[in-house]
Every structure is written in C-alpha cells, then in structure tokens.
Amino acid sequence: MKLRWNVVAPLALLVVLAGLPLFATEYMLHIGVLVLLAAYLATGWNILGGYAGQHSLGHSLFLGIGAYTSTYLFAQIGLTPWIGMWVGALFAAIVGWFVGYLCFRYGLRGPYFALVTIALAEAMVYLVTNLNALGGAEGLDVRWVGHNPALMQFEGKTAYYYIILIMTALLLFGVQRYSRRRFGYQMIAVRENEDAAEALGVDTLAVRIRALVISAVVTALGGVFFAQYYTYINPRNVFGEGPSVQMLLFAIVGGLGTVWGPAIGAILLVPIAEFARSSLGNTFSGAHLLLYGVVLVLVMLFMPNGIVGLVQTLERRRRGGRA
Amino acid sequence: MSELLQVRNLTKHFGGLAAVQDVSFDVNKGEIVGLIGPNGAGKTTTFSLLTGFLTPTRGTITFAGRRIDNLKPHVICRLGMTRTFQIVQPFPEMTALENVMMGALVHHRNIDEAQRRGRNTLARVGLAHKADTPGRELTLVEQKRLEIGKALATEPQLLLLDEVAAGLREAEVDVILDLVRQLNTEGITLLIVEHLMKVIMNLSQRIVVLDFGQKIAEGSPAEVSANPLVLEAYLGKEED
Ligand SMILES: Nc1ncnc2c1ncn2[C@@H]1O[C@H](COP(=O)(O)OP(=O)(O)O)[C@@H](O)[C@H]1O
Ligand SMILES: [Mg+2]
C-alpha cells in the first residue's frame, strides 16, 4: 500500500510527542502543554470560524463556561472534573445553541455575529465578577487535594501533558474525518455561498448552529483542562479577550478552514511568544501581545490563507501551475 | 391530476413596488414551460418566490399537492424543486466536482456515492475535464454550466432555469438546448426563464408572459408571439 503522508506524518508526530516526557524538562513540558492547549482551542474555534465561516471573537465565553462549571461543582459538591467537564460541555452546548439560533435565525452573521460574541463574553466577565457565589473578581481555586487521578489532579506535568495531547489528537482526528464527510462539505458550502447552499438542500441555519454547538463543546472541555492545569481561574483570564484572540490568531496564521492550520499556528507562535514573555517580561511586559499583533498583520498582508494556504499555493506552482 | 406546480394570485411587494402581482399559472408534469417578459418584469422574483428565497406578500404555491409558500429553499429542494441563479452562484473555493457533489449530497449522504453521481452530472454538463478546478477559476460559460450541474445533481422533479443561455455563443446555446430537451425526455419538468426568443420558442410547450409583474398572456409559442399585448410589451421597451 502506498504511504500517504497525511496519515503517516500525523502519526509520526504523535509518536514523537508521546515520547517527549521521557527526556523533557518540566519547563519543556509546560511549553508543550501550552502549545497543545492552544492548538486544541484554535482547532475547536476553526470548526465554526474556519469551516462554517462565522468568526467568533468571544469564544472565551465557552472556555469560561467549561472552566467555571467544573471548578464550581468541584468546590461545592466535590464532583470530579471528569464528570464536571461534561456538565460544562452541556451548558456550553445549550448556550451555543441559543446564541446560534438567535443570531443566525435573525440574520446576525459575519461581523454582526462577531460583535455579539464579544459582547456576550464581556458581559460574562462583568456578570461573574459581580457574582460572589462564583468568587467574584477573585476567581476560584481548584483546591489541591494531592495527587489524585480520579479528581483530575496530578503531581508534576506529565499527566496533564498526556491528557491535552490525547484531547488534541482526538479533536484533530475528528476534524480530519468529518471535514471530508457530508457535514464538513455542508459547512464549507454555507461559508462559501449561503443561497447556493440552500438551493441545493442544505439547511444553512441548522448547519451553522450545529457548527457553533460543536465548537462550543470542544472549547468548554478545553476550559476544564485550563482550570485543572492552572488550578486557578478568574473572570478575566477565562472569559476575557485574551483567550478569544489567541484562538482565532493561531487559526488565521495557520490557515482558516484547514485541518492542520490552527495547530501549526499554535506550534509556531506559542513557543516564540513564551520566549518573549519570559525573556522580556520584566523589562517589557506584554511583549508577546505585541508580537501577536505584528504577526497577525503580516500574515493578513502577505499570506491571507495562512501557512497552510501558502504551502498549498507553492505546491500547486511546483506541479506546473495546473489549476 | 397532472399538475406539478400550481401558482395562485402570487404577489410580491418590495416597498411600494409590486414586482409580482396576482400571477397564476400551472406547470404540468413532463412539460417545459417558458416564463418570459421584458427586463424587470418579475421573472427572477417569481423564481425566488417559488423556491422559497422570498416569502409571498399574497398568494399560494402548491407543489406536488403540498402548499410550499412558507417553506425554506432547502426544504423545497428536498421536495423536488430547485433553481439555478441568473447571477451564477458557485462555491468559489470548492472544485467543480465538489460544487456538483453538494447537490448530490441532498439525497445521498455517503461521500463516495455523492462523488460518483457528481462525476456523472459533471460529464452531462460538459465539465468532466474541469472536475478539479476551483469554482472561482471557471470561465463564466463554465460557471453557467456548473449552475445547471449543481441543480441537476439534486435530482429535481421540477427544475427552474433562470437565463442559463444568456451570454453564451450560438454553438454553446445549442448544447444547452439539447441538454434541456434531454433532461425533459428523462422525465424532469422544466420552468425556464430566457431572454433569447429562439431558446424559449424552441423549447417551450407553453409560455407565460409577464410585464410589470403581471401575467399578460399565456399559451403556445405561436399564440403568444401573435398576441398584441406581448408584442407591445416587447416593442415598447429596449431589449438588452
Ligand atoms: N430584493 C429586491 N428589492 C427591491 N426590488 C427588487 C428586488 N428584487 C427585484 N426587485 C425589483 O423587482 C422588479 C422585478 O425584478 P426581477 O424579478 O429581477 O425581473 P426580471 O427577472 O424579470 O428581469 C424590478 O423592478 C426589480 O428592480
Ligand atoms: Mg431576471
């Protein structure tokens, strides 16, 4: 059988990444977790933003719902995050469904949808900040109970690394698979031309809502991991604009609506940003944010289809400019 | 009963403008019906009403015995009626094959099956050699053919063609004429809007004439072309 690079390369990468903890330092593992979490979240954002073409600028809404749900349930009733994560996912799905239905049913798409999502995420920052039950501005701690896999708490970083590695691998596998199925094509059709899609029997409203709900669920599960890993959340760091911007940034830089683009964007940018933060952090705080801004502008100017798009264009030229 | 489509008192207002006004007609199973009229007569608006892209201000549409005037386009498509767009609407980033495949996916969830059917349809509209070309890179003529291919792939009972021959050269028009006839012999009912009289007169068994949103005549090609109201409507205006 002929080896197919699009199967072999990801598997090889997975093997390498799975072996990393054998020789990596704790700091390297930390960077690995950050990269994988970013890749995971950007890939989840890309389902709605890249494939279905609806750019949410407030996806932290779902990150925060996941993080706060599992953390609150653990703090209040001791529910393990392994279950809490699905409760959070359910809440995110419900909220996603309502947001999607209200926006898309009443014609708020594109930039209007983007604005609604920002507004909702910002509203959550203020709402949660003023809710003492949720810790207010102080946020919530994930109380350390010692190494306890049943409660998703681990000594050291290795277990967290493997969890997010598996989550990311499963997500990428799912996107790879479903983007080549009916629903994947329907999302692209809706993005490319709504009227044409409707004329060909695509329920464009349902497709958009479904894409949003799936994306919301994925993001909420990422939020639970975020909370467990950092063991602390507050309204700004989960519902705020930071996570929202990063999700779309990595997706845009890597390539919207491609399977690997968002992950590639995260792999390239997160280490650079971390390096900037750790080396310049004292003298120049926010250096990594400036870097993100500059990269985004450059990518939009010079490679509007992201890294994957650029590679595809070069590949096509190499094969003799055939369309 | 052989009526596939029943249109009664169909009316659409855009603000103060009555783009379509009290239009009634039928389309029978197996027919090719022409819908003609000067520019701005309301032909495209009628198509949009029939296929659910616009909601009628008044009037009813019955398709295959079922009221459809409040249904969305995708539902109407699944019931067996779809349209092409006068202004072509390809999926620009999808290949020609994927464009057509989108139509096939309505009734065939399996990608391989949809792709196989897409290939057949693509060959029928003469685009087999362009299967891997993105929609945006096709010429306008090719995009017009793609437009028919996409709609055809949904396996419609009733197909609405909006000026698919406009802007084509003589030989290309003949190809489309042959295709439409062929589709009709396969059992597809057609409602066609066309500016080119040659096409309409050639193909249609029956013609409905609109002017300023109202039906001013209906009949065989011979009857319609002898109708003084029709002559006036056309002579009174510039043809583009
Ligand atoms: N969406 C719309 N809003 C306002 N007016 C419209 C709209 N669509 C069509 N019209 C107007 O309705 C009339 C009929 O247009 P149309 O159905 O496109 O005519 P035709 O296809 O016969 O050339 C024209 O006067 C046109 O300007
Ligand atoms: Mg028209």
Describe this entry's structure for a reader:
The complex is a heterodimer of chains A (323) and B (240). With 323 residues, chain A is an all-alpha fold. Chain A contains 14 helices and two strands. Chain A has a two-stranded antiparallel sheet with strand order 1-2. With 240 residues, chain B is of the alpha/beta class. Chain B has two domains: 164 residues, 3-Layer(aba) Sandwich (Rossmann fold); 69 residues, no CATH class. In chain B, the strands form two sheets. A six-stranded mixed beta sheet of chain B has the order 6-7-8-3-9-10, with helices on both faces. A four-stranded antiparallel beta sheet of chain B has the order 2-1-4-5, with helices on one face. The longest helix of chain B has 16 residues. Classes of the chains: A mainly alpha (323), B alpha/beta (240). The interface between A and B is medium-sized, with 20 and 35 residues. The complex binds adenosine-5'-diphosphate (ADP) and magnesium ion.
Brief digest:
Chain A contains 14 helices and two strands; from the N terminus they run αααααβααααβααααα. By secondary structure, chain A is mainly alpha-helical.
What average pLDDT do the residues of chain B reach?
Answer: 93
**What would you call the shape of chain A?**
globular
Tell me how many strands of chain A there are. 2
CATH topology of the largest domain in chain B: Rossmann fold
Percent helix of chain A: over 70%
In CATH's first tier, which class of the largest domain in chain B applies?
A: Alpha Beta
Shape of chain B: globular
- Biggest chain contact: A-B, 20 and 35 residues
Element-by-element helix/strand order of chain B = EEEHEEHEHHHEHEHEEHH
